[in-house]
Amino acid sequence: MNSKILIIGACGQIGSELTLKLREEHGNDFIIASDIREGDDALMSSGPFEILDATDDSALEDVVMHYEIGEIYLMAAMLSATSEKFPMKGWNLNMKTLFNVLNLAKDFKINKVFWPSSIAVFGPSTPKFDTPQNTIMEPTTVYGISKQTGERWCHYYHKRYGVDVRSLRYPGLISYKTQPGGGTTDYAIEIFHEALKKGHYDCFISENTALPMMYMDDAIEATIKIMRAPASEIKVRSSYNVSAISFTPDELYQSIKNHLKDFQIEYHPDFRQEIADSWPSSIDDTAARNDWGWRHKYSLEKITQEMIEGISPKISLDFEG
Question: What is the pTM of this model?
Fold first, then answer.
């Protein structure tokens, strides 16, 4: 590796785990973490960190020049449920950061960009099952609108300026290592914490709402894999569908109940139900599997086991504290 990598949004749900994984593989000093606030001890002690507001183009360029950055993973974003509460903040953060990074690549100040999209780009008119790579979108949320717009700009910058930008449409992501970040699919993280703490969970989407989901380890693997692939294998320059499994809250509840017999759930759908209803129930990611060899590893049962084993020690520490 000749140049260093900058992670923007390194303290977030994906960014924190991505940073540690890349440092493990490339060495701590090659991976520069950044965010608008400091992260946890594991992140801060593992390598270089910069406080950075990525909406400030000059501050971003200063960091890129100082560390001789070659690749940027732009993980900073305001997620779906939070963006609905603060629409213009969500739009401005999600779009300005992307333009700042794309323009650095256009001006040959960096070589390669990763930018995450989401299943939020799809809408109520999208085919709900096995949603294809290329299909009608019509997103109905600020987050989805910003991600769909971002996809078009990524494609444009690649076609017009030759920018090597790569992207994945993440489904709902599940991890025990970081707290939920304000996404509609975050019920699938909250439910484990509440099951272990209280033995009861009030779910904010209905029991039969199936959504595409992925364990964080699979998401990190997909992210690193697409960035390592030869440019000739990346046929889609907007964003690739990636998928692992789909399940409903009830199916997740039953899976948890296999481990925690007394666990109970109630359903109280709120404004996030409408968001969830606008998204696909399952995703066709044939293009990613064929083009650059994407494969997922985690089943629902394996995810459930990993989450319970990962969260249980934290709950014990909370009670002891």
Answer: 0.94
